[in-house]
Design a protein that fits this description.
The protein is 35% helix and 27% strand. It has ten helices and 17 strands. A hairpin with a 5-residue loop joins strand 3 and strand 4. The longest helix has 35 residues. The radius of gyration is 38 Å and the shape is elongated. The N and C termini lie far apart (110 Å).
Length: 402
């Protein structure tokens, strides 16, 4: 800075530096990369730079002393100026980055961002409003493109959700089939509000020689991918059940099918084969692939877990699942469920195994469908009506003797 006075005195006859700076300041104001406007407190324009005139196609002689700043705005902008812009300017002394549309000479609109400051005298009386105008055409288009991209993404997500929900509805039977000599009840409840597709599923279908199969499972994850794995699991079990009579062999084939998928997905599945005996008894052969063990409900004993636990499916090449066999006498029930039952929460408290056993004990005389529905209703009440996880329950009951 110490060289500035010396530099101001040119020996070659050039104008002094301070004159050059003054001229540059005037040129910078007039041709700045933004519009500059000065107006009286009522908005009447008293000074306008060339940049603003070039952007809008308006003439200086038509603006200065003739029009107010707010008159250059679109109708919506004029309303906003009166209700928000001007009051904020008077109260705060400045406004920043207000988005408006300025009407050009040809009637088109120029998106703009404006900043204004209010110059006051020593007594605080308003003297002048200074405004900078930035052309926001590209920014507005960028914002619109972002909005369009967001809308496309939301529409795509909505289509995917509807597709997945439709797929899942096709995989969850609307009602369990009527099985001669066996009372079957089933309930499915998706998590939270039910908008997101879950991974729980069940199926009840007839096997050769008059036997019946029950399968219940829980696929890792949610959404369309979980629904696709659910479809794979359901159809694989149906196909395997025709080839294999042993429940552990059915689960082994499902495990191999899961391992062959490009995207790794694991699940827990319980599979049972039901065979009616003379006299009304139902023989059940079942196995669990990492799934919660079913609960046996009889007329005399406290409800208890039945069977042996097995390995999660879709993780290891050789998943172990040990088969178990039990006989349901007339009136006895076997209840299959997903972990959305026992892991339902109220605050930090889980519904748990004890509540499950107690709930089934109070319903030991109920038919299969009321038994399953009553259990789900109790869990929903416990968790405040919005379970965090999906819930599926299948109850099979040997028909009581006539």
């Amino acid at each position: 800075m110490s060289d500035l006075p010396a530099a101001a005195e040119r020996l070659d006859g050039d104008p002094p530096l301070h004159e050059l700076l003054e001229r540059d300041a005037d040129d910078l104001y007039d041709h700045a990369p933004c519009g500059y406007l000065s107006a009286l407190p009522d908005g009447t324009l008293v000074k306008v730079n060339t940049t603003f005139l070039r952007w809008t196609g308006l003439r200086r002689e038509d603006l200065v002393g003739r029009r107010r700043f707010q008159e250059l705005l679109s109708p919506g902008g004029q309303i906003y100026h009166e209700t928000h812009y001007a009051p904020m300017l008077r109260m705060q002394g400045s406004v920043r980055e207000i988005a408006v549309d300025i009407v050009r000479a040809d009637g088109s609109r120029m998106p703009a961002l404006v900043n204004s400051t209010l110059k006051q005298d020593a007594d605080g009386n308003p003297l002048l409003v200074r405004t900078t105008v930035f052309d926001a055409t590209e920014r507005r288009e960028y914002e619109r493109e972002l909005l369009r991209a967001r809308q496309r993404a939301e529409e795509s997500e909505a289509r995917a959700r509807v597709l997945a929900q439709t797929l899942q509805q096709s995989l969850i039977p609307p009602a369990p089939p009527a099985v001669p000599g066996i009372d079957v009840g089933a309930v499915y409840r998706p998590a939270l509000s039910g908008e997101e597709v879950g991974g729980d599923f069940y199926d009840v279908f007839e096997l050769p020689a008059g036997d019946w199969a029950v399968v219940i499972g829980d696929v890792c994850g949610k959404g369309a991918q979980a629904a696709a794995v659910t479809a794979l699991a359901r159809h694989t079990v149906r196909a395997a059940a025709i080839r294999e009579s042993r429940p552990e062999a059915v689960l082994s084939l499902l495990n191999q099918a899961l391992l062959r998928q490009d995207a790794p997905r694991f699940c827990t599945v319980a599979y049972a084969r039901l065979a009616r005996r003379p006299g009304g008894d139902v023989e059940v052969h079942f196995a669990s692939g990492g799934h919660p063990l079913p609960i046996l409900v009889t007329g005399t004993m406290r409800p208890r877990s039945a069977g042996r636990p097995g390995d999660l499916l879709g993780v290891m090449p050789e998943a172990t699942a040990e088969a178990s066999t039990l006989v349901l006498e007339p009136g006895d029930a076997l209840v299959f469920f997903t972990d959305g039952i026992t892991e339902a929460r109220r605050g930090e408290e889980f519904y748990g195994d004890e509540r499950l056993a107690a709930a089934l004990a109070t319903r030991r005389e109920a038919a299969a469908q009321p038994m399953a529905q009553g259990l789900v209703d109790e869990v929903l009440a416990f968790s405040g009506g919005l379970p965090r996880d999906d819930i599926a329950v299948v109850a099979v009951r040997a028909a009581p003797a006539a």
